[in-house]
Amino acid sequence: MAGFAESIRNIWSVQELRERILYTLGILLIYRLGTHVTLPGVDAAALAQVRAQEGGGGLFGFLDMFVGGAFKQAGIFALGIMPYITASIIIQLMGAVVPYFQKLQREGEEGRRRITQLTRYGTIGITALQSIGYSINLLAGATGRAVVINSTLFTITTVVVLTSGTAFVMWLGERISEDGIGNGISLIITIGIIAFLPQALYNEIGLIGDNFFILLVEIGVWVLVAGAVVLVSQGMRRIPVQYAKRVVGKKVQGGTTQYLPLRVNAAGVMPIIFAQSIMFIPSTIASFFPNNATMQRVGGWFSDISSMSYSAVFFVVVVFFTYFYTAITVNPQEMADTMKRQGGFIPGIRPGKQTSEFIDTVLTRITLPGSIFLGLVAIFPAFAMQAGVSQGFAMFYGGTSLLILVQVTLDTLQQIESHLLMRHYDGFMKSGKMRSPRQGGGL
């Protein structure tokens, strides 16, 4: 504990790091304040009364977690940063199949700048479409009583305000990434998830009553699942790479053994986000047809995230996208070519095609347990709900929320660790430093 307190003092003593952290906290505070600003034309008190009668379950309750409560409050940040995530996914997928985007990916900084610009344009388009669906859904049913202006005018203003709100949130995230600490987009999602934890824990305590043993068991299981996620996120298979000796002038270079790290979970949280986006599509389409019974039945099935049938489909989709995303982000052939150009080789494996095939085989084998683990984590909240845990608290047992919390926390700690080590301070985690993808260890 004394070492942790010393690390906190070290963080505060570094002016640049302190300013970055305070700047990040200030931006996140602005975002949290914006989630409580209601859309024009909505009676906030009437909407809160309707929402209280509806309860907080279902798909919309799940979506609400990622925007810090703004979705059900009809806030100006109701769509949050999720349209940006969707646009990023689409651009990334197009980079694997469309030659134009493949060319941009190879053009270095200029190409990345162009991809970022296209992602922003895509975000605006996706937000505008989702805003229409959101306004239609809000006007339908009991929530329509909370809208106090003409429906056409409300739809137009909602599209404008929600699109502007998402653009502003996207700008806040970019400011954090450039001038703050951590990845801004990820931190904005994380702060929305964390905002739900106190209320979810309070509701769970109220549901359990005086039986604190059950609460301790639930918290213990949550800690074990979080620990397993950390373990798999940091786990990797290290392939030894031998570099031949070369004489450059009067110096001898090479002759050393390094390691090629292949992560067990090379895809990170993206497969679950991909899968979740696919599972959201039927419900989103159904929201455009509130009076169509067939569409509502389909949307209702895809909204029941606690059902075992939904979980089975979700598990299969997560496993598929884990392999898919790993295949488009990790290129064994490129690794083998780079290794060959640098005079490196894997002992017992010929450079070139055999090296590529060997890396591909190892990657396929370690991706299997990683994909199964991701699938189990994705559907674990459904098992928790079946066991009697409230939906709000069950969401923290796995799925996208837990993976994002763990991944963003690890990434942010790594950045803080780097700032401290550059200034000759002890790292944030003295007993076991955070592993970067270039470091060894793991499975």
From TrEMBL:
What transmembrane ranges does the database entry give?
21-39, 74-101, 121-140, 152-173, 180-200, 212-232, 268-289, 309-331, 362-383, 395-413
Question: Entry's Pfam families?
Answer: SecY
Membrane-protein topology:
Multi-pass membrane protein
Gene3D superfamilies, from UniProt? SecY subunit domain (1.10.3370.10)
Question: From which residue to which does any coiled coil extend?
Answer: none
Q: Does the keyword Cell membrane apply?
A: yes
One CC-aspect GO term = plasma membrane
Keywords, ordered alphabetically = Cell membrane, Membrane, Protein transport, Translocation, Transmembrane, Transmembrane helix, Transport
Q: Which domain of life is it from?
A: Bacteria
Please, one GO biological process term? intracellular protein transmembrane transport
Per the record, the similarity remark reads: Belongs to the SecY/SEC61-alpha family.
Give the multimer and partner information.
Answer: Component of the Sec protein translocase complex. Heterotrimer consisting of SecY, SecE and SecG subunits. The heterotrimers can form oligomers, although 1 heterotrimer is thought to be able to translocate proteins. Interacts with the ribosome. Interacts with SecDF, and other proteins may be involved. Interacts with SecA.
The name this protein goes by in its record: Protein translocase subunit SecY
Q: What is the lineage of its organism?
A: Bacteria, Pseudomonadati, Rhodothermota, Rhodothermia, Rhodothermales
